[in-house]
Amino acid sequence: MAKNDDHPAKQAVIKEWDDWASKHGEDVVGDGMLFFGYLQRERPDLLLDFKYPGDKWQIVYTWLLREGRVGR
């Protein structure tokens, strides 16, 4: 796997977050777990189809955190 910050899936996940958050308003902005649930239900074959030896929630959360989309 490429370095996490360089992973091609990262940009797709961040773009999806931006689209998803804009449709759901302030109630969900910052809630990475709701977003991850959405990815698991609606986009697993497109946005969660990357190789990672651990928990994909952890890598998606790290990407969102580093890009300032969610807080700790």
Separate helix tally: 4
Mean pLDDT: 85
User: Radius of gyration in whole Å, from Cα?
Assistant: 11 Å
How much of the sequence lies in strands comes to under 5%
Q: Can you give the helix content as a percent range?
A: 55-70%
Derived structural class:
mainly alpha
Most strands sheet: none
| Shape type | globular
Which blocks of ≥5 consecutive residues have pLDDT under 50?
Answer: none
What is the distance, rounded to the nearest whole angstrom, between the alpha carbons of the first and last residues?
A: 25 Å
User: What is the domain tally?
Assistant: 1
Sequence of secondary-structure elements: HHHH
* Total number of strands: 0
